[in-house]
């Protein structure tokens, strides 16, 4: 939605500069109201409506009003007056530790909804008890007020009327403040040129069922507690199937309800993929039912499609372990259907699993009734007898009434403007449909407020400050042909994990198979560092680890460090990237990281012959080093221009005949940088004194040697000291090389002459079984004594040595011909 659409959804018809925040919307949460408020203030700024604003009234200091007031303080220089009939800001959330606020969980099982962080540019928070969230938000609100003091709080003031008076609004209020909250009367009514109605939805009536006093949802007493007086079969009557009713149904069913634990039983469960997609599919079908057609029976769909899945994945069993012993539950709804589409899928699922757990344990009873009226005929210390219209009497020890707040009461003072708004808003909702269900914050709005906060000197939120000292968590999730990438590490920063000692956590809901080409990349990044924990189901990685690390090309590489479970969060900064292209791009980032390390080390060595470590440990004459420096400059320019060239060069540095193995690149990283450095130095020395040797992009090999008259040679410069766990020199006779020359950056007894005759000697029986065409067995160059001596003496000596290698190869080729003739 663009800013004009957002304004259209909030503006009251025929009442210029009067806006409503969310009070007529569905799926209201603390977070969504904040997002609505920020989007609205940003849209007003964007459309130029805040320019001449001098005095703004914000009526209601709940999540919507407090956020709107903070945003207005930052975005305008207007005086902002914040009214609330309650004596405190965010009054609803102030009374309970037992209700948990989660910013995004309402939209589970959509992707990225388990993030604990609201991730808002101001008044940010992360999931916690209702009281804690309130405290965090108020603290930040006061920090903004300290930077932008143009705020007046009128707490304990109930607005009784707003009227348009020429070009301004007259806002009348009655004071219900206490002595602790004195309110000046002299500005009543107040005059404002812009007004926000952030009045929320009201509170639940005290006796929604006559004769039953049900504690408020927002109080600790409203949450069913554990058994303490030994009732063998406690009975609960829960009235209402909105989100409050569903949550308290689960609380009543549980022996010791903890909202957070209940949520994580579902959302952090590793075996929920099938359940998630089945739930999404059911909701999609339910939403697609045409108006006038009977609605999809959600309960019936759960029975056929969800029950087998949650029974098989152990979720019902887990809930069984938590059931209140002997509990009997009655859920009363006004509608025939148990579940309504307007509620959170997570709450529906939790109720459904609780019922299935109930049914599995014989002693537990669940009953659904639908009826309009319920009255209490008897209520005494022993409980209630409830008369349910058309059904008869039902006894219950406890009655929990969650029939929603009294909206009419809260709207009553504003009827003069809200009637018109209600109708206009219903049309707006119908027009934008699903876009209005989950309001998000546009990147423009986010950047706008981030800048305002920075400019005003507002300190970062406690969440951001805490995050700075915690492990940085990021997530990759397969989504069709894409990878959905989220969290605190951008793809361009992936290689930084290798550079720092900070801790990182990578969350992967998918196993190696479904991640395809991304899976070896995970092994590559994790195998080269100890500060990354991978959260995924290890079982789905065992095969790849076996084939790549235990028995494959990366023998000896560290296995990823796996953490327990699938932690929530890391859903900020969402991006979707095509899987294969992403894997390629990330390998290239990692290759660049290695190249930079190699370049820093080698450049210093070539300049002055010294090194910080002992990776090279060779003495090379200055004239040769100068020639090598020129060669290196040319090579790095080629690497900069061609990622595939660099990728192939480094990959073959660590892989003998595994270049086409899908996981061949995993060996290239910090653990192999020392070997690669030596390999590059040896290759550079040879390239500087042998004609036209340079890096090569395509197999076979990673070097070429060009000649004027002959076809070019492919070469393989190889730096790993081990191949499949065996010392490199023990592998050279195995016919694994596919190129005309091989440079092995390993010390050893094998000198160039022996190496160049090796395959010939090994095949000195009368049967010549070369694995390469006759006369094309590779010229092998290793760090032999002669080679090292030549480098020490300088360019002329090395050139002479290499010319000798060429000459001997020519003689050897003649020998082959002779043998063949003799045979
Ligand atoms: C039973 C129930 C359960 C819920 N559970 C959750 C949950 O688990 N998580 C969640 O995120 N959300 C939940 N919600 C939604 C919750 O209402 C919002 O999260 C949040 O409180 C909405 O903020 P708000 O600012 O729009 O409204 P409110 O928080 O209601 O704030 C509106 C404010 O306006 C004031 N006001 C109203 N009229 C006047 C007037 N005439 N003059 C002066 N002041 C006035 C009120 O005193 C109030 O402080 C639940 C709601 C209900 C009813």
Automatic annotation (TrEMBL):
List, for all copies, the residue spans of the domain called ABC-three component systems C-terminal: 482-802
Q: Which InterPro entries match?
A: ABC-3C_CTD2, FAD/NAD-bd_sf
Q: What is this protein called?
A: NAD(P)-binding protein
Give the organism, scientific name.
Duganella lactea
Taxonomic classification = Bacteria, Pseudomonadati, Pseudomonadota, Betaproteobacteria, Burkholderiales
């Amino acid at each position: 939605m663009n800013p004009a659409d957002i304004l259209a959804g909030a503006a009251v018809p025929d009442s210029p500069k009067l806006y409503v925040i969310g009070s007529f919307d569905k799926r209201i949460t603390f977070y969504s109201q904040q997002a609505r408020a920020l989007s609205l203030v940003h849209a007003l700024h964007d459309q130029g409506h805040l320019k001449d604003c001098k005095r703004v009234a914000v009526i209601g200091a709940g999540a919507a009003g407090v956020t709107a007031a903070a945003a207005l303080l930052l975005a305008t220089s207007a005086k902002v007056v914040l009214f609330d009939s309650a004596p405190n800001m965010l009054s609803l959330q102030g009374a309970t530790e037992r209700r948990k606020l989660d910013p995004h969980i309402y939209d589970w099982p959509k992707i990225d909804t388990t993030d604990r962080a609201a991730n808002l540019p101001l008044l940010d928070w992360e999931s916690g008890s209702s009281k804690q969230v309130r405290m965090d938000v108020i603290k930040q609100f006061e920090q903004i007020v300290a930077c932008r003091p143009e705020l007046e709080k009128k707490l304990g003031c109930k607005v009784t009327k707003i009227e348009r008076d020429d070009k301004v609004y007259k806002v009348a209020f009655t004071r219900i403040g206490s002595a602790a909250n004195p309110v000046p009367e002299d500005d009543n009514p107040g005059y404002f040129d812009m007004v926000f109605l952030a009045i929320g939805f009201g509170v639940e009536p005290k006796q929604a069922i006559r004769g039953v006093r049900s504690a408020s949802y927002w109080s600790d007493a409203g949450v069913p507690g554990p058994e303490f007086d030994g009732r063998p079969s406690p009975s609960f009557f829960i009235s209402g199937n909105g989100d409050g009713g569903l949550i308290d149904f689960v609380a009543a069913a549980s022996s010791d309800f903890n909202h957070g634990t209940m949520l994580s039983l579902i959302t952090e469960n590793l075996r929920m993929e099938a359940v998630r997609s089945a739930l999404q599919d059911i909701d999609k079908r339910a939403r697609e039912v045409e108006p006038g057609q009977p609605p999809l029976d959600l309960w019936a769909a759960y029975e056929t499609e969800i029950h087998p899945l949650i029974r098989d994945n152990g979720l019902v069993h887990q809930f069984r372990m938590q059931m209140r012993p002997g509990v009997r539950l009655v859920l009363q709804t006004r509608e025939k259907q148990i579940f309504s589409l307007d509620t959170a899928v997570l709450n529906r699922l939790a109720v459904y699993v609780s019922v299935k757990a109930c049914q599995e344990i014989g002693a537990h009873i669940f009953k659904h009734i639908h009826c309009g009226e319920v009255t209490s005929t008897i209520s005494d210390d022993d409980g209630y007898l409830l008369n349910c219209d058309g059904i008869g009497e039902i006894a219950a020890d406890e009655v929990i009434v969650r029939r929603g707040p009294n909206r009419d009461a809260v709207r009553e003072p504003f009827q003069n403007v809200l009637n018109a708004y209600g109708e206009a808003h219903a049309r707006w909702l119908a027009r934008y449909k699903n876009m209005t269900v989950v309001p998000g914050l546009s990147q423009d709005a986010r950047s706008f407020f981030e800048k305002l906060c920075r400019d005003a000197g507002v300190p970062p939120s406690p969440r951001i400050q805490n995050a700075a000292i915690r492990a940085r968590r990021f997530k990759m999730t397969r989504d069709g042909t894409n990878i959905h990438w989220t969290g605190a590490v951008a793809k361009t920063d992936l290689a930084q994990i290798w550079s720092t000692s900070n801790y990182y956590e990578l969350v992967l809901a998918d196993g190696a198979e479904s991640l395809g080409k991304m899976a070896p990349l995970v092994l590559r990044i994790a195998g080269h560092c100890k500060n990354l924990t991978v959260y995924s189901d290890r079982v789905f990685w065992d095969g790849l680890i076996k084939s790549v690390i235990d028995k494959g090309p990366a023998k000896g590489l560290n296995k990823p460090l796996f953490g327990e479970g699938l932690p929530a969060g890391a859903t900020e900064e969402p991006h979707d990237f095509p899987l294969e292209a992403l894997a390629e791009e990330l390998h290239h980032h990692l290759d660049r990281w290695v190249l930079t390390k190699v370049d820093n080390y080698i450049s210093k060595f070539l300049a002055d012959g010294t090194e910080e470590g002992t990776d090279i440990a060779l003495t090379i004459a200055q004239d040769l080093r100068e020639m090598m420096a020129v060669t290196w400059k040319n090579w790095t320019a080629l690497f900069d221009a061609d990622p595939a060239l660099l990728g192939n060069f480094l990959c073959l540095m660590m892989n003998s005949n595994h270049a086409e193995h899908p996981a061949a690149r995993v060996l290239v990283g910090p653990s192999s940088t020392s070997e690669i450095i030596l390999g590059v130095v040896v290759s550079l020395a040879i390239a500087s004194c042998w004609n036209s040797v340079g890096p090569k992009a395509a197999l076979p090999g990673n070097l070429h040697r060009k000649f004027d008259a002959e076809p070019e040679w492919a070469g393989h410069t190889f730096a790993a000291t081990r191949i499949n766990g065996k010392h490199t020199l023990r592998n050279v006779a195995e016919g694994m090389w596919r190129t005309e020359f091989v440079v092995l950056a390993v010390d050893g007894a094998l000198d160039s002459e022996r190496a160049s005759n090796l395959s010939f000697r090994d095949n000195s029986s009368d049967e010549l079984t070369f694995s390469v065409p006759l006369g094309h067995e590779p010229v092998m160059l290793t760090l032999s004594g002669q080679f090292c001596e030549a480098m020490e003496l300088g360019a002329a000596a090395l050139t002479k040595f290499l010319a000798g290698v060429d000459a001997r190869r020519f003689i050897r080729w003649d020998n082959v011909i002779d043998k063949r003739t003799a045979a």
